[in-house]
Design a protein that fits this description.
By secondary structure, this protein is mainly β. The chain has 1 helix and 8 strands; from the N terminus they run H-E-E-E-E-E-E-E-E. The chain has a single domain, classed as Porin.
Length: about 220
């Protein structure tokens, strides 16, 4: 009889502990603040499976740092979309620290596919060959635009933490390869001129880094 009572007590204790665990939301709305440095708004949604071992996410980003500028070949306006599949190496769940505090987190490996379309538009001014005084207005104004389409494929490793069961912090690092094609409209580069793009430019071709963080809230 004593053994039966002990078993029932242990079972009820485990059941109470399981009931006290904070449920982790499975649908998360996210925003990536680091992209603000590029005048870009990136938002997305992640959907996690029931066992918290896999997830799918889709995000869109809008960039607006060229609004009729008159500087040659500077700034981009455009949209991009990204699909990501995550496999949680350590499932997203609740843990207990050595100090007895509970926390929720998961470690994951992810693959991503991204595609975007960006446009640069502006004007270049052609002035007289010989300087004059007072300065003369330009001979003519040359309008141009540059249309860039890019795609990238790669992977990331990351950690996702949950605060109070509703707020998410997602930190990741990785890399990939980006391909881009550029079409000039109304502007022809001089012979021998070669465009330069850094690794964060939409028109860059080659290996790219994938580093950042996002903040999320349950839906």
């Amino acid at each position: 009889m004593k053994n039966l009572l002990a078993l029932l007590f242990a079972s009820s204790s485990l059941f109470s502990f399981a009931q006290e665990q904070t449920p982790i939301p499975r649908t998360i709305f996210k925003i990536s603040p680091l992209y603000f440095l590029e005048n870009t708004l990136k938002i997305g949604i992640e959907r996690i499976n029931k066992s918290y071992t896999k997830s799918y996410s889709f995000s869109v980003s809008a960039r607006t740092d060229n609004l009729g500028q008159q500087n040659e070949m500077m700034g981009y306006n455009g949209l991009a979309g990204e699909f990501q599949y995550r496999s949680y190496i350590m499932p997203l769940k609740e843990y207990i620290s050595k100090k007895g505090r509970t926390y929720q987190q998961g470690l994951y490996a992810a693959g991503f596919l991204q595609a975007g379309n960006f446009v640069t538009s502006g004007k270049t001014y052609v002035y007289p060959y010989y300087p004059t005084y007072p300065p003369q207005p330009p001979n003519y104004v040359n309008s141009y635009s540059r249309d860039i389409v890019n795609t990238s494929l790669g992977f990331t490793l990351g950690i996702q933490k949950v605060f109070w069961g509703v707020l998410f912090l997602d930190i990741y690092v990785g890399g990939g390869f980006q391909y881009a094609s550029t079409i000039h409209i109304g502007y022809q580069s001089p012979d021998g001129y070669q465009e330069y793009y850094d690794v964060f430019s939409p028109g860059y071709k080659g290996i790219i880094p994938k580093i950042g963080f996002s903040l999320g809230m349950s839906l």
